[in-house]
Give the backbone structure.
Amino acid sequence: MLVFGGALGAMYFRKVIAADHLRDDVKDVVRLSTGIIGTIAALVLGLLIASAKNAYDARVTQFKQLTANLIFLDLMLEQYGPEARSMRVGLRNALPIMIERIKTENSRSITAPFETTAQAHSFINKIQDLTPNSEMQRSLRTHIIEVARTLAQSRLALFIQSHDSIPIPFLIILVFWLTIIFASFGLFVRPVPVVFVTFAVGALSVSGALFLVLEMDQPFAGMFQISTEVLNHSLTPLGG
């Protein structure tokens, strides 16, 4: 609305200013100035989209790694034997809580320090309490500790990146530049239907680009959210 309104406001302003202000040399100065602003805005918008896409892809990769580590940890606990059954049950009970916390942390309206859940503390204590009865169990216990550490690192990486968001002042300045550019377009044209349609399409296009950036900045919400269904169903149910 700001970008489109800037163009409409400039067309109205064109009617009230003196014709001397719309000479060819004035038009050249305005076009050169807005050309510089347009170049800067295009570069910044392109970099912003690329940065948001890279951050989004990084979170997708970390989330897939988290899922893979969780499945691998459960498989090793299964190989360890009946002594690790309670830990496998704990993983399944803690999974919905972890998924909900990941979604909450990536909400822009909520900012809180990272806190380890009671389920995580209990799981760590159970790993430490494992007493191997064979060489195979001793080796598995070592691998279980390593994978649990990797799983924790992936989880912390998601938490840290959830606080990396696009600064609001940065977006305000970019929208201001785009509004100035469209206002310069409207300053030298007559208000005919094709002009209104062109301005509307252009405003929707640049706003759509900003919308994509903001959506990718929230990977667990909105239109481009990362699906948690794979993680939610990654662990097979245990028998009775």
